[in-house]
Write a structure and sequence with these properties.
269 residues; alpha/beta; Rossmann fold; 6-stranded mixed β-sheet; 4-stranded antiparallel β-sheet; 10 helices; 12 strands
């Protein structure tokens, strides 16, 4: 990796726009994601989260603005971007007929890696799937399938991974399993951009959180910074700190494009 890539953010977005005919989906999105961090893009259905991820992963072209991933422009150097990213969508892309180990070996072979079996075994251990390695994926729980899906996306050691609503449809226990897997990614130096509509998920996982609403970033900051946007409430003389849910509903409900304490990009000062 070049020196300028190491020093630059893992993801850099400026003025990104995207429309479908008369529907404006992204209306000038700005954000940066630091290397080795978990960045949560929080928003309701239709806010533009998946569209942004598709642009960053070169599956869709933006109408305007610029975006770079790992130092490569997504529009002009799409092939280089695809070499250094992995994308996990809302539903696990695993083959249910194959075993967990066979799924991993297949992807490792498709990527022309040496010792596909060794790569598979290492990932099975890392994601606590060794005991189920020989079982067909059709017998896996939702959490196990999602963990296998994330493990498959890490084959080849991509420095940046996009997780588009990774816990959609999972039960609470399975969500906790996936959360642990995501935390493990960051501990190993992987940059994670996570889209979610679950407030507790962003609160539990993210180093920084951006709230996307109607195609715009309303705010971008740490959880502590976001909580400072609302005053504390006193109930029976007991001070109550605002929750992320309080912040989200207060911001999205107002419809304004810039909030006190933020700059033009919605980034907290």
């Amino acid at each position: 990796m070049r020196t300028d890539q190491v020093l630059s953010p893992a993801i850099h977005v400026r003025g990104l726009t995207k429309s479908y005919q008369k529907l404006e989906v992204l209306r000038g999105v700005d954000l940066e994601v630091e290397r080795g961090s978990i960045f949560a893009l929080l928003g309701s259905n239709g806010a533009g989260k998946t569209t942004l991820v598709k642009i960053l992963s070169t599956l869709l072209k933006a109408d305007g603005g610029t975006a770079a991933v790992n130092g490569f422009d997504v529009a002009t150097r799409a092939a280089r971007v695809r070499d250094c990213i992995s994308l996990t969508g809302q539903f696990a892309a695993v083959d249910e007929i194959l075993s967990g180990r066979e799924n991993l070996v297949l992807v490792a072979r498709l990527r022309h890696l040496r010792d596909p079996g060794g790569v598979a075994d290492q990932l099975l251990r890392r994601f606590s799937l060794s005991e189920a390695a020989g079982r067909k994926v059709s017998t896996y729980s939702g959490g196990m399938r999602r963990r296998l899906d994330i493990a498959m996306s890490l084959i080849g050691n991509p420095p940046v991974i996009f997780l588009d609503e990774p816990t959609t449809g999972l039960d609470p226990e399975a969500r906790l399993e996936v959360w642990q897997a995501i935390k493990e990614l960051a501990r190993n130096g992987t940059t994670v951009l996570l889209t979610t509509q679950y407030l507790d998920e962003a609160e539990q996982l993210a180093d920084r959180i951006a709230i996307l609403h109607e195609g715009r970033i309303l705010v971008n900051g740490t959880l502590a910074q976001l909580k400072k946007l609302l005053p504390t409430a006193t109930i029976e003389y007991v001070e109550k700190q605002p929750t992320l849910e309080d912040v989200f509903l207060a911001l999205v409900g107002t419809g304004a494009h810039q909030r006190p304490g933020t700059n033009r990009e919605g980034q907290l000062q």
